[in-house]
Design goal:
Mean pLDDT: 95
Radius of gyration: 21 Å
Order of helices and strands: HEHHEHEHHEHEHEHHEEHHHEEHEEEH
InterPro entries: ArAA_b-elim_lyase/Thr_aldolase (IPR001597), PyrdxlP-dep_Trfase (IPR015424), PyrdxlP-dep_Trfase_major (IPR015421), PyrdxlP-dep_Trfase_small (IPR015422)
CATH topology of the largest domain: Aspartate Aminotransferase, domain 2
Number of domains: 2
Cofactor: pyridoxal 5'-phosphate
Helix content: 40-55%
Family: Belongs to the threonine aldolase family.
Protein name: Beta-eliminating lyase-related protein
Oligomer: single chain
Strand content: 5-15%
CATH architecture of the largest domain: 3-Layer(aba) Sandwich
Shape: globular
GO molecular function: lyase activity
């Protein structure tokens, strides 16, 4: 996305009185205020470690019920270290992961290019692999990756029984199970189990602090003490041993305090929003109902027309609906991801239907 388009969208969103999808971007002053509220601003910061970073690691390990957690500046780095650990401990550099997974599409296959590992595909279906597919792998693997939810398949989750079966299958073939849990926070309601129970199925779990919790950056890799010791060494080798990371750590703590308790409510309301959107002329949502507070929406207009209509609605009527539309393989049909967060809780089904109709009307007028 061009930078000027991104900035125009963020400015339009921030100027809106009502927001359906996502959160208006916060100013740096607002972010600083959240950080100050999340910790003792008179305490010393971290110096390569300690301070709020250590406090955050301990809190996340407690939330997920793991022996330890290690803070990373990026999830890409954390996941590389998790997969490298699996290769070193099992002696097998082969990783089973989905072609729609974050490691392939959004990390530019760093596990292969940087860490020298090799990927195999347990499935190409738009969902996470099943236990049967894990057992049917044609060759041994050191680690199996499951992404919760699989974002680029439409934020889809396995059921709890399917996930526990996958964990058992990994044990049966002698492979580690790594959970890409960047969005684990919103996965728990659908799975019907606690973070501790979910992470307890895996050998390692990565979590993000900015995707749902509205932090400014950062991630954590959780698991055994041995994994944590290994992760700290490789974090340094990958260039992630940053002198001070207290702003990211405090922003993450603020998200755990303020956003995490509200996530189940976001997930529940996403089903109301999705049902209302599905009733718009020519619309389709997936999954139906959503598995998390995020889902996909298709409308029968080109992406450019919908983006222009959304910006016009925001700038003229001060209402943000949804942006980031992408054209699909079906001519004249575009798709956007919808995220129901705090501002979206104010919308009733009738609100969604009424504003959705206005967006579609505008898109028809903007259609090239």
């Amino acid at each position: 996305m061009p930078e000027n388009t991104r900035r125009r969208r963020m400015a339009a969103m921030r100027g809106c009185d009502r927001v359906l999808s996502g959160n208006p971007p916060a100013t740096m002053r607002e972010l600083l205020a959240r950080m100050e509220a999340a910790g003792d601003s008179d305490a010393l910061p971290d110096f390569y470690d300690g301070g709020p970073v250590t406090a955050l690691e301990e809190r996340v390990a407690g939330l997920l019920g793991t022996e330890a957690a290690v803070f990373f500046p990026t999830g890409t780095m954390a996941q590389q270290v998790a997969l490298r650990y699996g290769a070193d401990r099992t002696g097998n550099p082969t990783v089973a992961l989905h072609p729609l997974g974050h490691q392939e599409l959004h990390e530019r296959s760093a596990y292969s290019w940087v860490s020298g590992l090799r990927g195999v595909r347990p499935t190409t279906a738009p969902r996470n692999p099943t236990a049967g597919e894990i057992r049917a792998l044609a060759e041994p693997v050191g680690t199996v990756v499951v992404e919760l939810p699989l974002r680029d398949a439409g934020f889809v989750l396995p059921t709890w029984d399917e996930l526990t079966a996958v964990a058992a299958a990994c044990r049966d073939i002698g492979a580690r199970l790594h959970l890409d849990g960047a969005r684990i926070w919103e996965s728990a309601p659908y799975l019907g189990h606690s973070f501790t129970e979910i992470a307890g199925l895996a050998d390692s779990t990565y979590v993000s602090f900015y995707k749902t919790l509205n932090g400014i950056s950062g991630a954590a890799l959780t698991g055994s003490r041995d994994l944590a010791s290994y992760a700290r060494v490789w974090r340094h080798r990958y260039g992630g041993q940053v002198f001070q990371q207290w702003p990211a750590a405090l922003a993450a703590m603020a998200g755990l305090d303020g956003e995490l308790p509200r996530v189940p409510e976001y997930v529940r309301h996403a089903r109301t929003v999705a049902a209302a959107l599905a009733g718009l002329p020519g619309a389709r949502v997936f999954p139906e109902p959503p598995h998390t507070h995020q889902f996909r929406l298709w409308l029968p207009h080109p992406a450019q027309a919908l983006d222009e209509a959304a910006l016009a609605l925001a700038e003229e009527d001060k209402i943000w609906f949804a942006g980031g539309w992408r054209d699909t393989e079906v001519p004249g049909v575009a798709m956007a991801e919808v995220t129901v967060a705090g501002p979206g809780l104010e919308w009733t089904a009738a609100d969604v239907a009424e504003v959705g109709a206005r967006l579609i009307d505008r898109a028809g007028r903007h259609r090239p």
